[in-house]
Structure formats: C-alpha cells, structure tokens
Amino acid sequence: MAECIAQKYYLTTFGCQMNFHDSEHAAGILEKIGYRRTATPEEADIILLNTCCVRENAENRLYGHLGNLKPLKDKNPELIIGVGGCMAQLPSVQEKIRESFPYIDLLFGAFNLHQLPELIARVKQTQSRILELPPEREIQEDLPVVREESWRAWVTVIYGCNNFCSYCIVPYVRGREQSRRPEKIIAEIEGLAGQGVKEVTLLGQNVNSYGLDFPAGERIDFADLLGMVSAVKGIRRIRFQTSHPKDLSD
C-alpha cells in the first residue's frame, strides 16, 4: 500500500450495516497508511462519504452534502473529497458528479476499497480527478478494520443478492450472491473472541441464502453456519441481518 504523511480524515456513512462495516474497513485502511480520524470536516485533509442508493431520496441527500463541502474545498484546495459506496457505482451519479461537482476528487465502490491508498496517492501526484470505477467485481478479504466498540463486531458471511426484487437496486450495485468460506468466517470470529468481542452480527444482503452457491458436495446452509458460530468460545450473542423469508429453512 502507498504511504502518506500523517493527516486527518473525516468519514460519513449512509445506509445499511453493510455500508457501516465497509466504512470500518475504509477507516482501517486510512489509519494503516498514517491518517488519523477527526470529528469535524473542517479539520480534515480528506473527506469520504460512503453512500447508499436504496431509498428514493438518497441522491438528493448526497448532492446536498456535497454542496455543503464546497466552501471547505474553496478554503483548502488541497482537501481531497471522495464519494464511495453503492451510489458511487451508479453511472447516472458518476455523470452528475463529473459534470456538476468539479471539486469532487475521487469515486470508489464497495469492491475496490482496497485501492483507496493508490487512488489517494494518484490524486495527490497528478492533481487530477479519478472518477472511473473498475468494471470487475473484486472481493478483498482481510482488510484492516477500525471498530468503535470493542465488545461487538460485524462479520460479513455473504456478498450480493440474487432476488432482483422490483423495488430494490441492491443486486445491481452489490452483485450476485457469493458466500464466504465457513472456515474463514469461523477463523475471523475466533480472532474477534480472542480480542474480547462478545457479540457478532452476521451480515449479508440475504443471509438465508448462505452456502447455496457452494458446490453440491461442499454445501452447508445458514443454520449450519449458525451452529458453527455458536460453538466459538467467548461469543455470547449472535445476531444476523438481513434475511428473506423465502429462503428460510426448516
């Protein structure tokens, strides 16, 4: 990962727990390369907005926030402003930002968080905007993480969704379902338990579909995974979200 001098970052998150968990990774990545968090955007050297596009007024909220950041950019031209998350992956939003918000420096999606250090370095070195997202869906695990609470943690168990409900855009921005290997999930939770975590929330757009994409001979379902997690010493409470009734097993 590219190195940078110690500076401050401000991170705002909209949307679901998956987004908040992504922001934990974004914070971990930034702190690994030397940034420190600040509670006010006025003090920041880089401002990141991690966005959600599920609700109808999400775009208007984003554009309102971006408008509020313009005075900060005018005051400090070296300030880097980035927009990430699901909304940043929509072509219509990319075009709007490209044309109407010339002070926005970079875009990043849910699948290229790991590229943040390189994107930031390129913005600094070239003094140009980076508004193109990679077309491929690349899931990177074992990213750094910064959690606000030491006793509980989010753990992703499945990415994406296959349901394509008429009212929901998630499959288009989060992709199709891809389950994490159970051994990786359990290893992560065992590590968390060793750090003192007592409660885990298993995350997915549809956790009830967990394991359905595994080869037939290796298939386990979400109930099996819950049993494995419950056997981890030190974990006292298990939560999960979200689920779809049609995939609930007996």
How does this structure look, described?
The protein has 250 residues and is of the alpha/beta class. The chain folds into two domains: 8-126, 3-Layer(aba) Sandwich (Rossmann fold); 152-247, 2-Layer Sandwich (Transcription Regulator spoIIAA). It is 33% helix and 16% strand. It has helices at residues 17-32, 58-75, 91-100, 116-126, 170-174, 182-194, 222-230, and strands spanning 8-13, 36-37, 46-51, 80-85, 106-107, 152-156, 158-159, 178-179, 199-203, 237-241. A five-stranded parallel beta sheet has the order 2-1-3-4-5, with helices on both faces. It has a three-stranded parallel beta sheet with strand order 6-9-10, sandwiched between helices. Strands 7-8 form a two-stranded antiparallel sheet. α1 (17-32) links the parallel β1 (8-13) and β2 (36-37). The longest helix is centred in the N-terminal third of the chain and has 18 residues, at 58-75. The chain is globular, with a radius of gyration of 19 Å. 34% of the residues are buried.
SSE diagram, text form:
Elements: E1 8-13, H1 17-32, E2 36-37, E3 46-51, H2 58-75, E4 80-85, H3 91-100, E5 106-107, H4 116-126, E6 152-156, E7 158-159, H5 170-174, E8 178-179, H6 182-194, E9 199-203, H7 222-230, E10 237-241
Parallel strand pairs: 1-2, 1-3, 3-4, 4-5, 6-9, 9-10
Antiparallel strand pairs: 7-8
